[in-house]
Design brief:
about 450 residues; alpha+beta; Sulfite Oxidase, Chain A, domain 2; Immunoglobulin-like; 3 domains; 5-stranded mixed β-sheet; about 30% strand; elongated; binds the ligand Nc1nc2c(c(=O)[nH]1)N[C@H]1C(S)=C(S)[C@@H](COP(=O)(O)O)O[C@H]1N2; binds molybdenum atom
């Protein structure tokens, strides 16, 4: 094997084992304050070899950057050494979904499979905390209860819910609270989501506030508590696999729905059918599946998933990997701004001589809206605004698109960065480390080879 080939292979290995050392070798670690070594000479040739082509914007490539060509499946995403990403094998689901855990079943959607305006059922991510219940025999007779701090305890079957209230349909993002967790360094506790713990479906259901008004909230009503029919992993009937809740003000927002249909079809069992909540903008753990009961409480709920560091983030920045002062944590509420490139896919090849790349994707921002989405093909040295398509309703994602000129053949990283309506943009790396890795919204990058 020639020298170049050897360098290439060993750098590939080094990048997947220890990207910081690979980076130091290529960029030449400088002593003292400066971490920004530019690629030149041998470093440039070796970096080009490891990504598979000349790098037109190598001069802008920052030290400390794990090339996107090596980022998928490499640290910080832990790929089991013997296995690699496991494709999902589940009835009705796309085999391109990636299993993050099989007991409980958790599967995410790679960004390039989120290329449709409405995420099809087959591509929608799956998150369970407990066992998956048997599908209900007769959906219309599925019952759920509203009790606690209400004037009138309300038990409704799905049939009664449909007959008594007027359903609404909204297209809304559902996003796991831990989406983006794998981008934290050091690794945070929990399922290692990349950006695929999210999808945008058409949800049909009755506004939760209509149901709560029908029960009549007492003055003492402060917080909701959600319960479902999925058994705890241990099989212990006294334990809930999950039981989260929210302040009454969030529960009374007009887009929160008691959902029975998804993309115009009866809500599938795996997504919580016959009846689930969809609470947009906040962690999807509030969007309780297989809904059996909503109890209105006179204080913050303390069910499974409400205590310790679960769905909680520190008030003050903490040392990454350090010990948490749980007393100074708050409940994770609105999700942070995030954007993804859905086309081209990471690792795509464009024909030699291509002088533009058509990029598109999606962006969303929890309770806020997306004010702009920009892309960069020169490692963030310059940014190009994209066109945002109109959204259908609040909490719909923003589809963005742009055609970006390419100066030559070679290796490119396509970066995307969204800014929310409060002016906050995505960071370059996951910031505000916390023990369970919430709020990891580092900008998304894909590697493409032209030629
Ligand atoms: N009953 C019940 N509801 C639940 C969960 C659960 O484990 N049990 N998981 C929650 C979490 S953490 C997420 S991210 C979403 C996932 O919804 P999906 O599987 O339809 O994508 O469901 C939420 N609702
Ligand atoms: Mo979640």
């Amino acid at each position: 094997m020639n020298t170049q080939g050897r360098i290439e292979r060993s750098l590939d290995e080094l990048y997947s084992d220890d990207h910081e050392r690979a980076d130091a070798l290529l960029h030449g670690r400088r002593t003292g304050a400066s971490r920004r070594g530019f690629l030149n000479g041998a470093g440039l040739a070796a970096m080009s070899a490891t990504v598979g082509a000349a790098i037109p914007f190598a001069g802008d490539m920052p030290a400390g950057l794990l090339p996107a060509a090596h980022a998928q499946g490499a640290p910080p995403v832990p790929a089991p050494a013997t296995k690699g990403p496991q494709p999902l094998d589940f009835p009705g689901k796309d085999k391109g979904l990636v299993v993050l855990g099989d007991r409980p079943l958790v599967a995410e959607t790679p960004e390039h499979l989120l290329d449709e305006e409405t995420t099809p059922l087959s591509k929608f991510f799956i998150r369970t905390n407990g066992l998956i219940p048997e599908p209900a025999g007769d959906a219309e007779s599925w019952k759920f209860l509203v009790d606690g701090e209400v004037n009138q305890r309300l038990e409704l079957s799905l049939g009664e819910l449909k007959a008594r209230f007027t359903p609404k349909t909204y297209r809304m993002v559902l996003e796991c609270g831990g989406n983006g967790r794998s981008f934290f360094q050091p690794q945070a506790r929990g399922n290692p989501w990349t950006n695929g713990g999210a999808g945008c479906a058409e949800w049909t259901g009755v506004p939760l506030d209509d149901v709560l008004k029908a029960a009549g909230l007492k003055d003492t009503a402060k917080y909701t508590a959600h319960y479902g029919a999925d058994p705890h992993l241990s099989g212990d009937a006294k334990k809930d696999s999950l039981s989260r809740g929210m302040p009454i003000a969030k529960a009374m927002e007009e887009h929160g729905l008691v959902v029975f249909a998804m993309n115009g079809e009866p809500l599938p069992n795996i997504h919580g059918g016959p009846v689930r909540l969809v609470v947009p903008g906040w962690p999807a753990s509030l969007s309780h599946k297989w809904l059996t009961r909503i109890t209105i409480r006179d204080r913050e709920h303390d069910g499974q998933g409400m205590t310790g560091t679960s769905y909680r983030v520190p008030n003050k920045p903490m040392v990454p990997g350090g010990k948490a002062d749980e007393a100074d944590f708050r409940i994770l509420e609105s999700m942070p701004v995030r954007s993804i490139v859905t086309s081209p896919a990471n690792g795509a090849r464009l024909p030699a001589g291509s002088r533009a790349v058509a990029m598109r994707g999606a962006a969303w921002a929890g309770d806020l809206t997306v004010s702009r989405v920009d892309v960069s093909i020169d490692f963030g040295a310059t940014w190009i605004p994209t066109q945002l398509a109109p959204t259908r309703n609040r909490y719909d994602w923003s589809r963005w698109s742009v055609s970006v000129p390419l100066p030559s053949d070679g290796y490119y990283e396509l970066w995307v960065r969204a800014t929310d309506s409060a002016g906050k943009a995505q960071p370059h790396v996951a910031a505000n480390w916390n023990p369970q890795g919430y709020g990891g919204n580092a900008l998304h990058r894909v590697a493409v080879l032209v030629g």
